[in-house]
Every structure is written in structure tokens, then in C-alpha cells.
């Protein structure tokens, strides 16, 4: 469904030019596309049916979860964390997963909460990973397909069937086990658009390499052009970076992937986590960029999970665990490598902390990456909007954060702020979400406080300009009193003592 027309007025836009960012604008949308952007107060070309007064708020492209788990969100209450490490997270989540097929209503309730809260934040598209294996069966997939239908007006759910568990049952196996058969059956279901796995869970490195090849084969066999690996999720300098195996398979299996598809979704290989690459020296990064060349490969950093889970072996080092998530602004600046950021998990053993809000990752990123310049805030914002949409395989992604005629009218308006810097460093809670030119969600704060406002107390000696004393010497005594008393009073005030 696409709205006839919408006029968004009285809004700040994310222009790089400060003068343009300071101005107020109107954005005209017809049939889901931006048709005109003009200064607020001027007349547009037409009279749209619907009008939205943003009251000086700030408009961004809508937010995107390029990597989120729909099935294992909000299960922290049933995971007893003791060590808090990855092995424990796998084990307690496996126990929780055993209940998925027994209680689909629970899956639906939690998945629905994730989708609704995401749309409230300004998310209009997401790649939803759903696990398919002998524990979960198809229960998570069934629920995800239901939610895809349910949410279609507000948010596009791209379903990625995902093997979180090993495809090989034991280290001795040379052939994959039943998890692969289930994944193959899931890949054939209508509504499934992407396929993925976590090769690092395989018992051996040889099996991890075979896992990558098997996923490419499955994708190719089912004409799936969107592949997603949870990859190189470690900080071990002695481990082999498997990204090169992905590149090798991409060139072997899909030589035509170099070219972009003209459809809504093209061909894309998405790499989540990749924390191992944080150990790369400059020449290793350059080598990787050269190896990728024109292949459509996009990285997705998952800072909430990466920072929580990685680097635990260094807990007793002087500075503790290192920064273990892909440095988004640094990689863009040094290597022109555009990395998306995504939430990954909400309230589970892999990521117990954080909300569904992608903009919260930008705020976190400003500290983790020490990045708060204007250029940094642009890169961080793109990583949870435009670059995340590219990572999902979308092909109609705008180039700029400010809307241009022809762009899809998918926006989030942040109320109560008016600059990109505020959107990144201290984003507002109050938001309006627009998809295809339709307002699909609205989130507002209700406030009440006991604090009452009252005027500052008057000073006993009115500060007077120096030239006034020169003109009227009668005020010299007052000047002297002001000279001695003023600094003393200011000091008291700084210390929080109120003087009447
Ligand atoms: Zn994940």
C-alpha cells in the first residue's frame, strides 16, 4: 500500500552544509517517493492530501536492522548467566530454543514486541535471522513468516534462514548432518530471501570451510542471491581469517555476482561480526580490500554483542578487554570501506544489554570509536540507515542523508532536536516513522516532574558597564563593592549555595 501524497513541513534536514541544516524545509511525497524538497514557508508544486507538521524536528532516512535475531530476543529471564561467555551463551540459548517448537505463541509475542519497538524507533526494514535446526525445527521460521505478513505496511521483514548450530554433527564427520537437510528445506519456503550460517561453530576448521561452501551451494541451488555469514568472530591472531574462503567461494560459485541486479534486491554477501579483522595491520586491510575488489560484500559490525562477548581473555590486562568491534569511521576514512552497524540481539545471553534502537549504536560508537566530528556523525548515521539497507541487498538506496527527489519516502523524524550531531550524540525519544510516504508509527514521551521553575534571584549590586562608571563618578563606591563582592558571590553560586 502506498499513500497518495504527504507533505512534511517545518523540518530540519541532514545537509552537510551548516547553513542548509539550520534552515527549515518542506518535503513533498507522492506514491511513496520524494517529489520535491523546498524551503519551509514557500508553496509546493501541488496540494498533498496529508500534511505533517514536524514542528522543527529533524528528518533522517528510516533506520534499518541489517542483522537482528527475531527468534531469540527477550529470553534473558530464562537464561541463568554465570560465566557470561560465548560457550555458556550457546548452551543456555540451546535450552531456551528447545522450547520454541512447544510454544509458538511465545515466539510470536517476543517477535512482535521486537518488530513493534523497532518500528517505533524508526526502523522500516530488517534482516531477521531465524534459526532452523533439529532443536528449533521450523517453528521460528513459521512465526517469522507470519510476522512478515503482519508487519508489511510498517516494516519490510527480510527472512534469513540461519544455521547457528554446526552443519557437521561431530569433528569426525566428513558429511554434513541433519541440520543441513532442514536448512535446505527451509530455503525452499516462499518468503525466504536470504540464507546464512555461523561457520565458527563447526568442530574443526576444515568443517568451517566446508560450511561456507555448503551455504553457497544451497543459495545457488535455490536461486537465493543474499548470503549472510556470522564470521571470524574471535580476537585470536593465530586463527585463519575465513573471509578469504568466502571471497574464494563467491568467485567460484557466483562469477556473475560482480554486476548489480536491477531488481529491488540485488546480490549481496553480508559478513557479520568479523572481529578478527580488528587485528589487521594496514597492509592486511589493503590486501583484503584488493581481494574483495568489485564483489558485493558488506560488513556489519554488531557493537553491543562484539564488545560484550569478545576480549575476555584480556580482562586482567592493564586496560582490560580491547575495542573488539569493527571501527566504522576509521575503515570508511582509511580504506573507503563502508561498514554497517546493527543491533543483533536484544535481551539474551549473547547480548544482555541495549535496546532495539539502531541510533543508540551511533551514540555508543561515538565513544568506542572516539568519533564525534561532523564527518564521523555522518558515517555513523549512514551505518544504521543507508549502508545497512545496502547490507540487506536493497538496490534503491539513496546516496545522501538529506532527501532528494526520486528517493523512497522512508523516514524517521526525531522531535525536539534539529542537527545530525544531536541525532547521533543524544538522539531524542520522540519519533515519527514514515514508510512509503505513510506515517506508520509515532512515539511520544509523557512527562511529569515535581520540579518547578522560578526566576534567578536578583543580585544586590547591579553589574554596570565600565563606561557608566566613567560618566557618572557617583557610582564609583558601588563599583568598588561590586569588585569585592562579585567574585565571592560567583564562587558561592558555583558551589551550589543559593544567595537571596
Ligand atoms: Zn547474529
UniProtKB/TrEMBL annotation:
The chain crosses the membrane at residues 466-485. The keyword Transmembrane applies. InterPro entries: Metal_Hydrolase (IPR032466), Metallo-hydrolase_Enzymes (IPR052349). Keywords: Membrane, Transmembrane, Transmembrane helix. GO terms for molecular function: hydrolase activity, acting on carbon-nitrogen (but not peptide) bonds, in cyclic amidines. It comes from the Eukaryota. This is Metallo-dependent hydrolase. It comes from Lentinula raphanica.
Amino acid at each position: 500500500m502506498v499513500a497518495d501524497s504527504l507533505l512534511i513541513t517545518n523540518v530540519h534536514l541532514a545537509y552537510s552544509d551548516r547553513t542548509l541544516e539550520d534552515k527549515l524545509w518542506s518535503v513533498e511525497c507522492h506514491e511513496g517517493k520524494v517529489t520535491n524538497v523546498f524551503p519551509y514557508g514557500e508553496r509546493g508544486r501541488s496540494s498533498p492530501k496529508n500534511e505533517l507538521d514536524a514542528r522543527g524536528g529533524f528528518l533522517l532516512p528510516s533506520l534499518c536492522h541489517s542483522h537482528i535475531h527475531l527468534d531469540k530476543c527477550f529470553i534473558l529471564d530464562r537464561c541463568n548467566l554465570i560465566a557470561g561467555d560465548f560457550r555458556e551463551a550457546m548452551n543456555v540459548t540451546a535450552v531456551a530454543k528447545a522450547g520454541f517448537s512447544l510454544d509458538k505463541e511465545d515466539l510470536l509475542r517476543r517477535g512482535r514486541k521486537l518488530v513493534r519497538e523497532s518500528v517505533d524507533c524508526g526502523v522500516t526494514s530488517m534482516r531477521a535471522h531465524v534459526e532452523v535446526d533439529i532443536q528449533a525445527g521450523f517453528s521460528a521460521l513459521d512465526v517469522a513468516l507470519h510476522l512478515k505478513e503482519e508487519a508489511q505496511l510498517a516494516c519490510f521483514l527480510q527472512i534469513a534462514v540461519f544455521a547457528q548450530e554446526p552443519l557437521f554433527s561431530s569433528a569426525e564427520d566428513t558429511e554434513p548432518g541433519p541440520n543441513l537437510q532442514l536448512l535446505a528445506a527451509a530455503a525452499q519456503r516462499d518468503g525466504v530471501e536470504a540464507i546464512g550460517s555461523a561457520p565458527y561453530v563447526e568442530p574443526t576448521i576444515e568443517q568451517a570451510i566446508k560450511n561456507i561452501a555448503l551455504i553457497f551451494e544451497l543459495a545457488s541451488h535455490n536461486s537465493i542471491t543474499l548470503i549472510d555469514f556470522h564470521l571470524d568472530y574471535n580476537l585470536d591472531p593465530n586463527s585463519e581469517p575465513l573471509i578469504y574462503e568466502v571471497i574464494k567461494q563467491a568467485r567460484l560459485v557466483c562469477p556473475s555476482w560482480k554486476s548489480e541486479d536491477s531488481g529491488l534486491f540485488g546480490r549481496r554477501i553480508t559478513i557479520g561480526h568479523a572481529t578478527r579483522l580488528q587485528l589487521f595491520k594496514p597492509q592486511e586491510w589493503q590486501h583484503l580490500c584488493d581481494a574483495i575488489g568489485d564483489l558485493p560484500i558488506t560488513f556489519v559490525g554488531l557493537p553491543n554483542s562484539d564488545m560484550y562477548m569478545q576480549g575476555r581473555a584480556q580482562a586482567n590486562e592493564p586496560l582490560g578487554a580491547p575495542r573488539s568491534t569493527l571501527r566504522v569511521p576509521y575503515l570508511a576514512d582509511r580504506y573507503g570501506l563502508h561498514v554497517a552497524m546493527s543491533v543483533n540481539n536484544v535481551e539474551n545471553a549473547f547480548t544482555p544489554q541495549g535496546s532495539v534502537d539502531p541510533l543508540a549504536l551511533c551514540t555508543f560508537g561515538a565513544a568506542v570509536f572516539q568519533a564525534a566530528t561532523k564527518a564521523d556523525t555522518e558515517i555513523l548515521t549512514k551505518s544504521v540507515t543507508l549502508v545497512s539497507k545496502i547490507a540487506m541487498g536493497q538496490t534503491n538506496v539513496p546516496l545522501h542523508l538529506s532527501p532528494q527527489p526520486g528517493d523512497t519516502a522512508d523516514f524517521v523524524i526525531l522531535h525536539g532536536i534539529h542537527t545530525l550531531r544531536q541525532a547521533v550524540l543524544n538522539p531524542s525519544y520522540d519519533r515519527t516513522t514514515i514508510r512509503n510516504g505513510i506515517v506508520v508509527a509515532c512515539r511520544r514521551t509523557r512527562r511529569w516532574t515535581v520540579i518547578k521553575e522560578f526566576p534567578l534571584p536578583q543580585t544586590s549590586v547591579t553589574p554596570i558597564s565600565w563606561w557608566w562608571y566613567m560618566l557618572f563618578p557617583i557610582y564609583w563606591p558601588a563599583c568598588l563593592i561590586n569588585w569585592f563582592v562579585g567574585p565571592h558571590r560567583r564562587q558561592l553560586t558555583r558551589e551550589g549555595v543559593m544567595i537571596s
